[in-house]
Amino acid sequence: MEIWINPACSKCRAALSAFDEAGLSYTVRRYLDDPPTAAELEVVLDHLGLQPWDLARQNESKDAANGVAGLPRDDANRSAWIDAMVAHPILIQRPIVTADDGTATIARDPEVLRAVLAKATRS
Fold it and tell me: 15, 86, 10: which is closest to 45 by C-alpha?
């Protein structure tokens, strides 16, 4: 299992604590220090079943948000959204958990995190 985090994010820290308390084995990816490639983002989006605009945090810094400000949410601009998130990884929602079975989840909400933990401890 891999978890993409921003260490400054309280939801990321809560997810890591919950994984540790459950005794789960996982790999941490500090995606601000090790940004995903466009290909990696495509894979994660596929596993999440989302479009890039669904994964983008649009309340980030003005400089980062400028990368997606005004971009239409359509297939013609899909790669522009991905390129913006690669250039400004702060735009990526977090934490993202990719399980060994290839599924992925954005574990921001406590209920979602509990579901991820329940699934991981059953495996």
Answer: 86
**Catalytic residue list contains 12:** no
Q: How far is CA 20 from CA 1, 14, 16, 29, in A?
A: 13, 10, 6, 15
Architecture of domain 2-122: 3-Layer(aba) Sandwich (3.40)
Output the tens digit of pLDDT for each of the chain's 123 residues. 999 999 999 999 999 999 999 999 999 999 999 999 999 999 999 999 999 999 998 776 665 566 788 889 999 999 999 999 999 898 999 999 999 888 999 999 999 999 999 999 886
Which of these is catalytic: 1, 2, 9, 13?
Answer: 9
Q: Residue 22 is encoded by which pair of tokens?
A: 């459950």
